[in-house]
Amino acid sequence: MDNATRYLGPTGIDPIMNKVLNWLPRLGISVAGGRLLAVRGRKSGQWRTTMVNLMTATDGQRYLVAPRGHTQWVRNLRVAGTGELRLGRKAEAFTAVEIADTDKIPLLRLYLEKWGWEVGRFFEGLDKNATDAELAEIAPGFPVFRLT
Fold first, then answer.
1. Which residues of 4-42 are buried (b: 16+ CB within 10 A; e: fewer)?
2. b/e string for 54-74 if b means 16 or more Cβ within 10 A?
3. Each residue's pLDDT tens digit, 36-82
4. Rounded to whole angstroms, what are the CA distances from 71 to 121, 132, 144?
5. Which of 17, 55, 125, 139 could disulfide-pair with 101, CB 3.0 to 4.6 Å?
6. How far is CA 63 from CA 11, 19, 100, 111, in A?
7. What is the rounded CA–CA span in Å between residue 51 and residue 115?
8. How far is residue 51's CA from residue 68's CA, in Å, rounded to a whole number?
């Protein structure tokens, strides 16, 4: 699979679990930093939502990582450039800047440290102990956005 177009769609029980887990932030429940990401569709203009892990780096900057690759929310966010993070009745607007592949290595490592237990299966056998070279090799397949 080409890293520039890498996308791992939901399989097995994933669609059911995604529907259940998407309700938690709507109810105001954050599991391990989870939020409901809302982005306008690039074709429809309608709000599209999905559960994401909001990561705060050691420098205080916040990021979104797409462990499944170049998903619909990634494509929509690239076009829209803005979105909302929702938790219960609170909605926080943000602007997103996509991170260059060369700058993703420490962010991917931090993401694996925090959520490897949840998303490790999408990282092709790599974990938080992967070398910089290994993370650099997979970086193009894992979009990362800094939120402002």
1. eebebeeeeeeeeeeeebeebbeeeeeeeebbbbbbbee
2. bbeeeeeebbbbbbbbbbebb
3. 999 999 999 999 999 999 999 989 999 999 999 999 999 999 999 99
4. 16, 24, 12
5. 139
6. 26, 23, 13, 9
7. 13
8. 12
Q: How confident is the model at residue 1 (pLDDT cuts 50, 70, 90)?
A: low
The answer to whether 14 touches 6, Cβ cutoff 8 Å, is no
Does the CA dihedral 43-44-45-49 come out positive or negative?
A: negative
Task: Give me the phi and psi of 104, to 5 degrees please.
Answer: -80, -20
Cα separation of 86 and 25, whole Å? 7
DSSP per-residue codes, the chain:
--TTT-B----TTHHHHHHHHHHHHHTT--STTEEEEEEE-TTT--EEEEEEEEEE-TTS-EEEE-TTBS-HHHHHHHHH-EEEEEETTEEEEEEEEEPPGGG-HHHHHHHHHHHHHHHGGGTTT--TT--HHHHHHHGGGS-EEEE-
Please state whether the predicted TM-score (pTM) of the whole model is above 0.85. yes
